[in-house]
Amino acid sequence: MRNVGYATWGWETIVQLWDYIGNNARSLTFLTYQHASLSFQTVLVGTLAAIVIAALVYRLPLVSALTLTSSRVALTIPSLALLALLIVPFGLGVTPSFLMLAFFAMLPVIGNAVVGLRSVPPAVVESARGIGLPRWRILLTVELPIAWPVILTGIRVSTQMIVGVAAIVAYVLGPGLGSLIFNGLARLGGANALESALTGTILIVIIALVFDALLVLLGRLTISKGLS
């Protein structure tokens, strides 16, 4: 009888969850778009900033070592604490949410970008110099393409992290699916509370899986077969 009870409870939960999604499809679509858009934009900005920083420091052993250490230590900063600090100058809403997420998105990519650029074979760089390429062209056309597989791995890690961390910006009235999760948990036991929290969590997982699949596809399209 106990097993039947559990099965019935599980089936009823699925039915209620499906009904909740159907009744709130429009708002769920909008929140999902907000969450995906915020995650994409912050990862993009964080990646560009990380690559620029890595390009500036990777030739300097001491500075690059300090950059690697700093990026790893910065990952231990509690995201809620940083978010709270950003509220003071920027208030509630999108701005502190964006800055916090872009900062954390940058950190995994910096480490991989520095490691990737430093691992480019010196003979390849010397060959590029030998044919008269300036330093900036060597970086763009030789070193970055060779380091790209390592950088892309950092971007994948960053993306998965940011899609999850983006849920907490609901604490500062930021956009995305976090509002569903926290509103549901705050009303646990009330009408549609469990369905709200479950739906937000499931949609975040789906966004993470879709982004990762797109990054895998990007890797197949942009990484030379000789480097994969």
UniProtKB/TrEMBL annotation:
Membrane topology per record: Multi-pass membrane protein
InterPro entries hit by this protein: ABC_transp_perm/SBD, MetI-like, MetI-like_sf
Segments crossing the lipid bilayer: 38-61, 73-92, 98-117, 138-155, 161-185, 197-218
Domain ABC transmembrane type-1: 32-215
Keywords: Membrane, Transmembrane, Transmembrane helix, Transport
PANTHER family from the UniProt entry: GLYCINE BETAINE/L-PROLINE TRANSPORT SYSTEM PERMEASE PROTEIN PROW (PTHR30177), OSMOPROTECTANT IMPORT PERMEASE PROTEIN OSMW (PTHR30177:SF4)
Family the entry assigns: Belongs to the binding-protein-dependent transport system permease family.
Protein name in the entry: Osmoprotectant uptake system permease protein yehY
Organism placement in taxonomy: Bacteria, Bacillati, Actinomycetota, Actinomycetes, Mycobacteriales
